[in-house]
């Protein structure tokens, strides 16, 4: 008999295959007292376990195939850096020495202390970092307890075409599973903004998360269907249902292959409206993808990685050399540099001591607020961006604006730097566009005020949605409320687009919503003419744009904004998705 289980769709596509259940048995962490003579040996045992964990991660990194998205490598590198951190080396060693306890118990005490700090914070990025702590600690525990490797960690095991069911998966697990060519996966926890979900989308692996107790209902070796479009897992399917989903698989594969031919085609709607498609990038490796998919430029360059995992902030020349390298790679395409969106889990070590504890960092000192408070962090970056503007089509973007006074402060600093450069004969583009991110509801409501002062706006939906509906988007208890189609959210988006149109400045969207093909025609109907998305999503968005009649999309989008019926809004979205416009 066919049964269905419903979770959260985190990576699109259909996967059909036999199940392999990843069972990480609950680890029994022993606690025992050491004699003084045993302390040094126990510290060595800890060091060996950490070193072995790093060795395993290096081996996993070596198996990453060429051309894999840069964030895959970045997540593995993050776990390797965490294993180098004092929190996983010096502190457990100190606990062993001071408390005379075994290494496993020392690591557990340190893990509990770290997790307790994260659990007191509401910010979704910090909760994601809590998962990283668990993944890293689990590796250390398994080495200390001499647990054998799991099946997917062995190179000679064949998981080709199988569906993985697990409580949770770390980014490193996903890299190994991708190496084994698994068809898809299902996890009991997690959500669409987790590191693993981001990697799954980048690697094109269909996946469903948040399916509680999946391992209780789904058995080893049974055949299941993973519907990554709708967040559904089907078991016990008969041949008729299997044939339907195989047809959907084939249709999807043909579709993905067909959009690749659009690389050099103009991005124009059926009724002749030109649309700009930009790419979101973070690392130098991403810039190759910008060219491969024919993006119109970079709509969001995240600069935070320049500040992290180091004891001092990058100086002006380091910033400048980095931006010059990126400009050379773009060869004349527009390059939008977002000033540092630091804070929450992305705090430079040089600033940690000066920032007071915040119970909710997502609503605290972060992004432009932090930069204006810390001139030694902000000014070198601004100076470098202004210098780089002499070498290409640079645009500067300010994150997390909530007050027009913040805009005035930034523009004053820019004027001061430009005046200095003029006196010293340092080249720069005096017309470099300066824009702002609209990701705070107050800014979206007053978008017309910001539009009068800035050269462009970009809507950051990830934060805008969670702030607008007052939820932590990775909290499983309220995750169902994280809805881009919430009428309040859509009205904030529409208001921002309208403000840009009236002021005669471009408005882009660079959040996850922009890269989700389900919403492309709705956003076009709301008047969005610039999308900035992950390179992997760009060609699919382009296909939809070139098969959309804007006049009909606009009509349905207007109805979408003001219809309070959930059922009717679902009908409208389906009509837009299916091209009934």
In short:
This protein has 581 residues and is an alpha/beta fold. The chain has helices spanning 39-62, 70-84, 90-99, 103-119, 124-144, 171-179, 195-203, 214-217, 239-259, 286-292, 316-330, 349-352, 367-373, 375-388, 404-424, 441-445, 447-453, 461-469, 487-503, 520-525, 535-546, 550-562, 566-577, and strands spanning 3-6, 8-11, 14-22, 163-166, 184-187, 207-209, 223-227, 232-235, 276-281, 298-302, 335-338, 394-398, 434-438, 456-459, 507-509, 530-533.
As laid out across the biggest beta sheet, the strand order is 1-8-7-3-4-5-6-2
- CATH architecture of the largest domain, by name, is Alpha-Beta Barrel
CATH superfamily of the largest domain: Phosphoenolpyruvate-binding domains
Biggest beta sheet attributes: 8 strands, mixed
Report the β-strand fraction as a percent range. Answer: 5-15%
The poorly predicted ranges are 121-126, 349-354
**Span from first to last CA?**
38 Å
Percentage of residues in helical conformation: 40-55%
The average pLDDT score comes to 86
Number of helices: 23
Q: How would you portray this structure in words?
A:
This protein has 581 residues and is of the alpha/beta class. The protein has four domains: 118 residues, Phosphohistidine domain (Glucose Oxidase, domain 1, 3-Layer(bba) Sandwich), CATH 3.50.30.10; 109 residues, PtsI, HPr-binding domain (Enzyme I, Chain A, domain 2, Orthogonal Bundle); 130 residues, Alpha-Beta Barrel (TIM Barrel); 145 residues, Alpha-Beta Barrel (TIM Barrel). The protein is built from 23 helices and 16 strands. An eight-stranded mixed β-sheet has the order 1-8-7-3-4-5-6-2. Strands 9-10-11-12-13-14-15-16 form an eight-stranded parallel barrel, surrounded by six helices. It is globular and about 70 Å long. It starts with a strand and ends with a helix.
């Amino acid at each position: 008999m066919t049964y269905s289980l419903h979770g959260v769709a985190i990576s699109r596509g259909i996967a059909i295959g036999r199940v392999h259940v990843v069972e990480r048995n609950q680890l029994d962490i022993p606690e025992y007292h050491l004699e003084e003579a045993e302390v040094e040996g126990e510290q060595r045992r800890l060091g060996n376990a950490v070193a072995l964990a790093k060795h395993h991660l290096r081996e996993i990194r070596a198996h990453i195939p060429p051309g894999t998205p840069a964030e895959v490598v970045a997540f593995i590198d993050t776990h390797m850096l965490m294993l180098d951190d004092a929190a996983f080396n010096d502190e457990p060693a100190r606990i062993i020495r001071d408390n005379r306890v075994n290494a496993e118990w020392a690591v557990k005490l340190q893990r509990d202390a770290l997790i307790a700090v994260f659990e007191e914070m509401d910010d979704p990025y910090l909760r994601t970092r809590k998962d990283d702590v668990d993944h890293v600690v689990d590796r250390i525990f398994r080495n200390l307890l001499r647990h054998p490797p799991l099946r997917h960690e062995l190179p000679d095991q064949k998981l080709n075409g199988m569906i993985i069911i697990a409580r949770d998966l770390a980014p490193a697990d996903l890299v190994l599973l991708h190496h084994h060519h698994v068809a898809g996966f299902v996890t009991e926890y997690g959500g669409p903004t987790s590191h693993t979900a981001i990697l799954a989308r980048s690697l094109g692996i269909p996946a469903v998360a948040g399916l509680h107790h999946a391992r209780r209902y789904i058995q080893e070796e049974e055949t299941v269907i993973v519907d990554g479009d709708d967040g559904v897992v089907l078991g016990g399917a008969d041949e008729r249902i299997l044939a339907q989903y195989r047809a959907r698989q084939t249709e999807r594969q043909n579709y993905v292959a067909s959009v690749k031919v659009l690389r050099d085609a103009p991005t124009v709607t059926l009724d002749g409206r030109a649309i700009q498609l930009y790419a979101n990038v973070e690392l130098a490796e991403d810039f190759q993808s910008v060219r491969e998919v024919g993006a119109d430029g970079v709509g969001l360059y995240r600069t935070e990685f320049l500040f992290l995992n180091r004891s001092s902030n990058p100086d002006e020349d380091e910033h400048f050399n980095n931006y010059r390298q990126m400009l050379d790679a773009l060869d004349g395409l527009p390059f939008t540099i977002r000033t540092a969106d630091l804070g929450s889990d992305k705090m430079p070590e040089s600033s940690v001591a000066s920032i007071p504890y915040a119970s909710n960092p997502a609503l605290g000192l972060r992004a432009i607020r932090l930069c204006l408070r810390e001139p030694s962090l902000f000014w070198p970056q601004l100076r470098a961006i202004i210098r780089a503007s002499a070498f290409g089509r640079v645009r500067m973007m300010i994150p997390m604006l909530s007050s027009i006074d913040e805009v005035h402060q930034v523009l004053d600093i820019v004027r001061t730097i430009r005046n200095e450069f003029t006196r010293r004969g340092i080249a720069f583009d005096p017309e470099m566009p300066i824009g702002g991110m609209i990701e705070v509801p107050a800014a979206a409501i007053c978008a017309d005020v910001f539009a009068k002062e800035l050269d462009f706006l970009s809507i950051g939906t990830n934060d805008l949605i969670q702030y607008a509906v007052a939820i932590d988007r990775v909290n499983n208890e309220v995750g169902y409320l994280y809805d881009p189609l919430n009428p309040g959210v859509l009205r904030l988006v529409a208001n921002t687009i309208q403000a840009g149109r009236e002021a005669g400045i471009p408005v882009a969207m660079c959040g996850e919503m922009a890269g989700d093909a389900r919403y492309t025609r709705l956003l076009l109907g709301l008047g969005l003419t610039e999308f900035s998305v992950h390179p992997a999503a760009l060609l699919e968005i382009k296909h939809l744009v070139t098969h959309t009649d804007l006049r009909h999309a606009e009509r349905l989008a207007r109805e979408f904004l003001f219809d309070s019926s959930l059922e009717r809004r679902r009908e409208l979205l389906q009509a837009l998705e299916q091209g009934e416009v």
